[in-house]
Amino acid sequence: MTRVAVVGDALVDVVDGRGVPGGAALNVAVGLARLGVDVDLVAMVADDEPGRLLVAHAAAHGVRLAATPAPLGTATATATRDGDTMRYVFNEAGVRRHVDVTHLLPLLDAADLVVVSCMALDDQEQAEPLLRIADPERRLVLDPNPRPGYLPTAEHVVRFREAVERLASRARLTKVGDEDAELVWGTEPHAVASRLLVRGAGTVLVTEGPEGATAHTRTGSLHAPIHAMDEPIVDTIGAGDATIATVAAALADLDARGRDVGDEEWSGILVDAMAIAAHTCRVAGGMLQLPSR
Fold this sequence. Notes:
The protein is α/β, with parallel strands linked by helices.
């Protein structure tokens, strides 16, 4: 079975007063497990009520959790709806999240792929060890997933942007959302994709919500629209996480079968990712939802 390690945030989303296991990295890890992948998750989780909820959720879906120290407790995020987008307010543990992978590099290097999702990359102590992941051009998938609550000042934004660009220059794939591009680069995502490709990025996956997704490679670009559905959107929590989980699972599967990832493969990957993202938006919370067959 393909093995993927996910590194990043795990937290409890408080939606309409109800605690829901979430956080980008946890969503990606559970999504990968639902897609049949063997998954390790490295995340900051404390032995408190929210932490125990996350531990139980990960275990229920077959995700092995390597919890890093959480002296401020487990992160929580209160979500409110703003049109079709969710806005978040984080507790102190969330704002000051810290995941240092230095001592877990052997675990990451044993995986077929490593997915980094929603890390505090503005902190050099957390970003620098990621540069030491083995064979990143083949194995590293990066989803910076910035949020305004995590980047309170212009200085934080600059440090975050610089770290993303250093990591992307070595990564196999980097995901950039439309809101990410505006927050971190002050421009639209396709311009960011061009910038990252010039700096050495392998592939840049641009996601634009209802406009779908585009894979920019060094030889061209492929686009897939979001999958059309009659059912109303419940929330958009986890749509981007479902997308990156679907893409990572597909890349790992193609690798395992010794297949190159050309235009035909990318077209299929994007169509599947947009269908899964659309279905995820029809259910509350961030868990990846599989289309009915």
